[in-house]
Amino acid sequence: MRHRFACPVRWADLDLLGHVNNVRYVDYLQEARLDMLRAHREQSGATGAGDDPADGIIVIRHEVTYTAPLGFRFRPVFIECWVTSLRAATFAMSYEVFHESPEGERTVYLRATTVLAPYRLDEERPRRLSAEERAALEMYVEDAAPLQRPAPFSVRRNEELRYPVHVRFSDVDVYRHVNNVVYFEYFQEARIRLLAALGRGLTEVPEVHTVVAQADVDYLAPITLRAAPYDCWSQVARVGSRSMTIESEIADGDRVLARARVVMVFFDSATQRATEPPAVYRERLLAAHEGRPLAPVS
């Protein structure tokens, strides 16, 4: 069985291209997930977490595939979510974000999978699913291919591409950790810093637009509120003819707290299609990818 949630789209969710920003989709997924657990609780008396207030559920990994741009509409976008894996101490949920015509034809904007784990908040450690939690989730189980183990990577610590992550009070959730959605914002800000550094001095190059095609984020340890910033390091991991991959990690000194691998597509806003970046900009990307000094500006 799948749970369907009608999610309102806000004007503030849009980016410079007039599309729903990639970060906001993850917020939509969270709303759908919580609505599913809330609906089941109201119907059956089951809880989304254990009865103990120290029990919670945290996100371990997001895999998000963006399939089509979503613009602003006054009617909500639909999200279906269901359980694809149920283990002793973790479970996975999948989602589809779409609009549906009166004839039942879907325009799908995003597909995603989230791996979650029950968590003991007072002891800062994972726990096993309770019998009640398992029963609540089993009714939403559908068969699915197992998740692929992410390929490990490490990020070169180039000071020019460092982004200081300042945690705001509003970033923190009821668990007193930075909410999983906000990590996407941190990684987005770090990518903007990287792209700005690569484009510095290229005054004759047309404005370069990109859209996110795939974003995979692994949550390794909680980020908490503090005055001192954390470090987010980024690198260009791959350069294609019309796309690139950026890898980032948020760290507290030598301790890595989260990693992201994001595929970005160069986008022509006039034709609404993928395009090749300017040659001089692509050379900058290749230099960054190979660890070479950036080509001088003529």
UniProtKB/TrEMBL annotation:
The lineage of its organism: Bacteria, Bacillati, Actinomycetota, Actinomycetes, Propionibacteriales. This is Acyl-CoA thioester hydrolase. Its EC number is 3.1.2.-. GO terms for molecular function: fatty acyl-CoA hydrolase activity. Keywords: Hydrolase. SUPFAM superfamilies: Thioesterase/thiol ester dehydrase-isomerase (SSF54637).
